[in-house]
Amino acid sequence: MEFWAEMDRAELVPTYGSEDSGCDSEKQSGIPPGPSVAQILPRQILDLSDEVLMLILELLDPTSLLNAGSTCRTLYRVCLSDSLWTRHCRFFFRLSLCDETFPPKDAFRLLYIWHKVYSTLPYNRQLQDLLFKTCPPPKYWTQWLVLEEMVPLPPVQLPDYEIEELWGIGKECVLESHRVSDDQSTEQLYKYTWKELHNIAVLQHEHLGNVMKYVLRKQFVNSHDELEWMYHQYCRFRFQWMFAYWLFGVSKPCSRNLRRIYLWWQTYSKKKTFCWGTAGCDVQYFASLHRVTEDYWRGKLAKGDETLDCHFTSALTPRRTVPELRWIERISVFTTSSE
User: Fold this and answer.
1) Each residue of 145-179: pLDDT tens digit?
2) What is the DSSP string of 60-97?
3) What is the pTM of this model?
4) What CA–CA distance (Å, rounded) separates 37 from 16?
5) Torsion (CA) 170, 175, 178, 180 in degrees, nearest 10
């Protein structure tokens, strides 16, 4: 931005050979006036061709690319180029999308949101309730878990056709040694750990990038409203979740020592600290006891970019219709009232 500001100021400053330069000696010498800076350099970046703009935009990271695309229609059109987002998919996820029909930008957006949400599993109670309520979880979430090698869930017992549909593993790869006998079920069930199925899927598809493409093909026909809502919850409360996990997500001996150290030389209410680590404790009160933890609770220790992910996915998200916006508004109102 400073570069373009300097260019704007350069257009206002009299240049060599211009009529307003006041160089009478040059006029008297008969030297022909040279071109001004404004005539040599393009007045705006939009004067550049699409090919040159692409070379410039290839140097940007995904966040900067989205910020550039939000400035005007021309840059938005150029920033939607499949080649730019195919490059980011290859760099961040080692995913090649040269022969796929779905847009690379949408593929990058879904993979980015899923990895962000799944990384919060140790301290995201909502995601824990969703994944741990049933085993295996609902089909939509099980399809996403195919991408993960380490899943803290018990082994799954599924028929061979469901394993083939979710992981893309052929029935011939399902071993009879994993077959379990269940008198209550009329189907033949096979018991596998999540890591075993992940490794078999990688071998079946030759590498992890093909597993990602398989999952994306399956998920592109589904609605991702729940995943997006959970991501926005993460953007709103991630600092509170991580602080509570840091304060109470330890063993009992460590918790006692941490409590003693955390409350050392602090004036606190014994009534509120009595319920330390329980479901009814006031976590925000504990954060307010120290200036550093209070700033962390408010998201002020993230180098000023604590809302970076919110802006990032909002720019990735396509424009919504009026019914979708009304649905999201009802969800947000429900969430606010429940809090």
Assistant:
1) 999 999 999 999 999 899 999 999 988 888 888 88
2) S-HHHHHHHHTS-HHHHHHHT-HHHHHHHHHHHH----
3) 0.72
4) 9
5) 80
